[in-house]
Amino acid sequence: MAWTAPRTYVSNELMTAAIGNTHWRDNLTELRAGGIAIASQAALDLITAGSATQLTRTAAGSALQYPRINAAENAWEFADGFSEQDAVLAAEVFG
Questions:
Q1: 27: how many CB neighbours lie within 10 A of its CB?
Q2: Would you place residue 72 in the very low, low, confident or very high pLDDT band (cuts 50, 70, 90)?
Q3: Which helix (H) or strand (E) holds 42?
Q4: How many CA atoms lie within 13 A of 16 on its CB side?
Q5: How many angstroms separate the Cα of 75 from the Cα of each of 34, 38, 49, 69, 72?
Q6: Are residues 87 and 69 in contact, defined by beta-carbon separation less than 8 angstroms?
Q7: In the chain, how many domains are there?
Q8: Residue 3 lies in a domain
């Protein structure tokens, strides 16, 4: 089963079980199954856009870690404290 784009309803339209099942029940089932949402997650995970159409999750880091972009600049990661590179970047951004 796949997500079905919601229909546009018109005045005096006869609602049938087939319409309701397709646009309400099936779409809610798809959402619940992770068709659009992330299939699994845990408390404190970082949810970000992995692409224009997909969400991704990064598992939570340890205590006192902070999220940052990795060295390849293509994903999030959790890091310990500020590195020298982070301090230089912060100085450039925040003065």
A1: 19
A2: very high
A3: none
A4: 3
A5: 22, 16, 10, 6, 8
A6: no
A7: 2
A8: no
